[in-house]
Amino acid sequence: GDIKANFHAGGVPRKTDLVFRDKKIINAVGPLLRKNNLFFVGIDIIGEYLTEVNVTSPTGFKQINMLNNVNLEKVFWDKLEAKYKLV
Q1: Predicted confidence band at 87 (pLDDT cuts at 50, 70, 90)?
Q2: Which is it for the CA torsion 52, 57, 63, 65, positive or negative?
């Protein structure tokens, strides 16, 4: 009957849809994060509450790539290069 959410503790990623409350939280914090020039941020929502904003070490790249058949690392670096005109 144990539920493990943290990947390092054995949690298993599962793709789900965002619910209304998730979208409301995202719409509330998104503009503030962008205003502070943060474009690579992870947020944790438990139930109906924002519990954590990870601005230094968001996790989940591997799991997002696997669940969505993408290469998020490439998307991140492409956006970083474009943002700072490194190319």
Answers
A1: low
A2: positive
